[in-house]
Amino acid sequence: MKKILLIFITLMLSGCWDSQNIEDLSLVVGTGIDKIDPVEGVQIVQQIILPKSGSIGQGQGAGYKNITTGGGTLHEAIRNVSLETKPISSEHQRIFLINQEVIKETPLDTVINQFIRDDKTRRSLYIFLTEEPASELLSVKTDKEIPSNIIYELTENRKKTNKILPPLKLGEASARLQSEGSFPIQIVGLEKGNLKLMGAGVINNGKLVGENLTGDEVSALSWLNGSVEGGTVEAVHHDKPFGFEVIKLRSKKIKTKIKNGRLFIDIFIRVEGRLAEDWYEKENSFDKGYQKGIEGIVEKTIEKEVNDLIYTLQNDYKTGVAGLFHYVKNQHPAYWRKYGKQWDEKFSEAEITYKVRINKTDFGTKGSSQ
Predict the structure, then answer these.
(1) What distance, in Å, lies between the first and last C-alpha atoms of the chain?
(2) Average pLDDT rounded to a whole number, residues 206-232
(3) Please, where are the H alpha helices in the chain?
(4) Are 35 and 182 in a shared domain?
(5) What span, in angstroms and rounded, lies between the C-alpha atoms of 118 and 16?
(6) Which residues form the Spore germination GerAC-like C-terminal domain (predicted)?
(7) Can you tell me whether residue 41 is helix, strand or coil?
């Protein structure tokens, strides 16, 4: 009996047979790709966390180092990093930066193929596009913070501004490439030496198309597809600016119909918010008429921005990047089976009606100035 118990305990203790000391590994937290060329090959940069006790870094107390390598394929380039550092571990990688020039010529599914196949790479890592070289962004000087972590954590500010898209994870990007065809990817760049999320690139059939969406257009896109989580709407009344803060999305209704072969999409959004700032000297937030006036201006402001974006998507991009195809597919499966592969064309020809209703639930601690 004792022998059986001893064997059982031995088997239970064998679970960590392949464990490695974290100080013996190079922990990759971010990867950037700046070039894919059939002749010159691939150029990447990997950001590696250094132990706090380490003295090597890009500047005193940097806490990380960047290694730039190349190869005939992305896989080879990543393996070549091992020529310059300890054994690589990608299990803690948080971000993947892709220079826009790369996916103007090379399909996105080709770029992420190695990461998808690698069972050590987390499918939850975030993908971003860059206008500047990815190596430049990962080398930006910060106050003892790791650039990859800064970029990753910027996405947590979605409740503060609608100019930030829901983070695009590696696994989601792979799935969208198989089913959706077109979708946006957040751009990260530099402004006055600081890392900043700024607009988005539009992916269609795996490649970057058209001009980048501005921050305001990204905000309008969040309103269009009902993914808004917060943010502020700036508008003017009585020739004075005011700011309306969105607290939460109360409801979203998206209905589609087919009439005489044409697609109609009706979108109705309802949100709650508060008057966060008002420069009008004679404001009276206790007055219901004043409140309704503010709500009406906010609604018209949002609807104009969204309708401007719809026009841009239908006439300039000619692609259904807003993700509205889900509703057509679910509500009209027969139509989708027939025209699903022509979605961009059908979206561009669709009649889209957008309405938003604002419920102001709070106006802060200030009411009447009279």
Answers:
(1) 89
(2) 94
(3) 2-12, 74-81, 100-105, 108-111, 113-117, 134-137, 147-154, 170-179, 215-225, 288-312, 325-331, 333-339, 343-349
(4) yes
(5) 22
(6) 198-360
(7) strand
Within a domain: 330: yes
pLDDT single digits (tens) 35-73: 877 777 889 999 998 866 443 334 444 588 999 988 888
Q: Is 239 left (phi over 0), alpha (psi -120 to 50) or beta?
A: left
Q: What whole-number distance in Å separates Cα of residue 328 and Cα of residue 193?
A: 44
The closest alpha carbon to 269, from 367, 353, 151, belongs to: 353
207 and 221 housed in the same domain: no
Instruction: For residue 96, give every residue at least 6 positions away whose Cβ sits within 8 Å of its Cβ, in sequence order, or none.
Output: 30, 31, 32, 33, 112, 115, 125, 126, 127, 128, 170
Q: Are 126 and 167 in contact (CB under 8 A)?
A: yes
Same domain, 331 and 353: yes
Which residue in this structure is represented by tokens 């064997």?
Answer: 7
The CA dihedral of 167, 170, 175, 176, to the nearest 10 degrees, is 50
Could you give the CA distance from residue 295 to residue 225 in angstroms, rounded to a whole number? Answer: 21
- Residue 229's H or E segment, with its range, is none
- Is the CB of residue 370 less than 8 Å from the CB of residue 284? yes
Distance CA 328, CA 340 (A): 9
pLDDT at 366 over 90: no
Q: Which residue matches tokens 């913070």?
A: 145
Amino acid at 115: F
Structure-block tokens of residue 259: 């009439």
Neighbour-count burial of 242, counting CB atoms closer than 10 A to its CB (0-12 exposed, 13-18 middle, 19+ buried): buried
Q: What is the chain's mean pLDDT, rounded?
A: 87
Question: What DSSP designation does 19 have?
Answer: -
CATH number of the domain residue 305 falls in: 3.30.300.210
Both tokens of 19, joined, read 């464990």
Lowest mean pLDDT among 77-81, 255-259, 303-307: 77-81
Give 166-196 pLDDT, tens digit per residue: 999 999 999 999 886 689 999 999 999 999 9
Task: Say which amino acid occupies 3.
Answer: K
Hey, which residues does 248 pair with through a beta bridge? Answer: 272
Q: Does residue 12 have a pLDDT over 80?
A: no
Please give the residue range of the domain that contains residue 89: 23-50+62-213
